[in-house]
Amino acid sequence: MASSDADIDFEVRTLGPRTVPSPLAPLLERRRTSHHAVEEGDRILFDDTRSSSERRGEGELPSLEAAGPRRKIFFDPSKTRVGIVTCGGLCPGINNVIRALVSELTTHYGVRRIHGFRNGYQGFIPEYGHDVVDLTVESVDGIAALGGTILGSSRGEQDIGQVVDCLERMGISILFVIGGDGSMRGAQRIAEEIGRRDRPIGVVGVPKTIDNDIPFLDQSFGFQTAFSEATRSIRSAKVEARSAPGGVSVVKLMGRHSGFIACYAALAQNDADFVLIPEVPFAFDGPGGFLEVLRAKVRSQGHALVVAAEGAGQELFTEAEAEGGLVDASGNKRLQDVGRLLRQRITADFAAHGMELNLRYIDPSYVIRSVPANPYDSVYCTRLAHAAVHAAMAGRTNMVVGRWRRRFVHIPIQLAVSTRNRVDPNGDLWWSVLEATGQPASLGEGAEAIEVPAFGGQ
Ligand SMILES: Nc1ncnc2c1ncn2[C@@H]1O[C@H](COP(=O)(O)OP(=O)(O)O)[C@@H](O)[C@H]1O
Ligand SMILES: O=P(O)(O)OC[C@H]1O[C@](O)(COP(=O)(O)O)[C@@H](O)[C@@H]1O
């Protein structure tokens, strides 16, 4: 199978022919008749959303390789040494992935040497002096109940040559990288450097971010936990807002480029009157602008609740403020603080209109991101980790695992970092938010008009 787009590669590389019988082969024999068994060449259609008549004449559709155990594998488990590293921001479920990688490698494949590199890519660079920890089924027992990552994480560029030197020095055969798009770009460069050195070392990623903005994943792990946790802040904010005259609560949630957490949390806890997300620009002033509509809401309802994703309203900052913006250690743009701007503008506006205001501001970002995974995400993390182990043992490299259209698949890293998943302002999710909040179609002149009717009599 090949892609219909010459620029995009849907094929995952394999280090070499698979000659070693998998210890899982007997188990696979037993379920050969099951339609869930993965056969060589099984692929999942990449884009099956259009009808066959719409697709007529377009030829073969792109597809992704199905994940799952193979009967023959590339690595001999008795000689395989594995490394695991976690990079970037925290996310519920990282420890679940670590635990499941270790237990699958150990119990099903019989791999005996698994090492955890500490504090992200720093862990490979001798100058930092981080220790390398041995990971066993016993040492990872119970870690799923903890938030964060037992290995630690970091941002910031590291020398890829030195990372690969370390892998070679330690005789690592497979490196698992649990991280976001930045980490995956790093993993891709590590795999490429390994390729240049012609070494049989596999690099397999388990994509992580609470922002849920990784493409070709039905959902990223930890996202469900994160938005569930966010509902608690929304509930508290509602209690605060309606308990005081002129009560306005603002809840700022994570979401640099995408408003998924804000949208899902607002829909799950139906208390928000306004949801502001990066995908939908808005204006403060003018007829139908945010401030005017907010005042109207407080007059009619007595209070109001605003949920804002951290990436919302970035267009409202002056050019000077935006230019003064910094980047974090990894080069990610540091966003302007929409929470501060909302507080300033709402306070000034209510004062200018002689309206009483009791403003409450809640920013639960780190509280949300550091909780342990909920039961759904725990299961999901386990399944992703198992898929990653099967792929890696079969010699796949320069890829990540994901669940796409409800099937676990192998995705080349290049494809996984090629774009970003964002809330579609014309899609069902955003429509549901508009319906649930009674938000007008467009907040303010100059804001991007969204073609939906106004709700809630606004
Ligand atoms: N293009 C890149 N090439 C190599 N390493 C990168 C690249 N982008 C990011 N990284 C590294 O990956 C790690 C995590 O990246 P970061 O953007 O902070 O988090 P995330 O992986 O969650 O997006 C950092 O150590 C960073 O330096
Ligand atoms: O940990 P930091 O540097 O404060 O980063 C905060 C950022 O991390 C995130 O939680 C996700 O970041 P990742 O790109 O690491 O997944 C964002 O929502 C947030 O903007």
UniProtKB/TrEMBL annotation:
Residues 81-391 form the Phosphofructokinase domain. Homodimer. GO terms for cellular component: cytoplasm. It comes from the Bacteria. HAMAP family: Phosphofructokinase_II_X (MF_01981). Residues 21-63 are annotated as: Disordered. Pathway: Carbohydrate degradation; glycolysis; D-glyceraldehyde 3-phosphate and glycerone phosphate from D-glucose: step 3/4. InterPro entries: ATP_PFK, PFKA, Phosphofructokinase_dom, PKF_sf, PyroP-dep_PFK_TP0108. Its main location: cytoplasm. GO terms for molecular function: 6-phosphofructokinase activity; ATP binding; metal ion binding. Mg(2+) binds at D181. This is ATP-dependent 6-phosphofructokinase. It catalyses: beta-D-fructose 6-phosphate + ATP = beta-D-fructose 1,6-bisphosphate + ADP + H(+). Residues 28-59 have a biased composition (Basic and acidic residues). Belongs to the phosphofructokinase type A (PFKA) family. PPi-dependent PFK group II subfamily. Atypical ATP-dependent clade 'X' sub-subfamily. It is found in: Cytoplasm. Its cofactor is Mg(2+). The lineage of its organism: Bacteria, Bacillati, Actinomycetota, Actinomycetes, Kineosporiales.
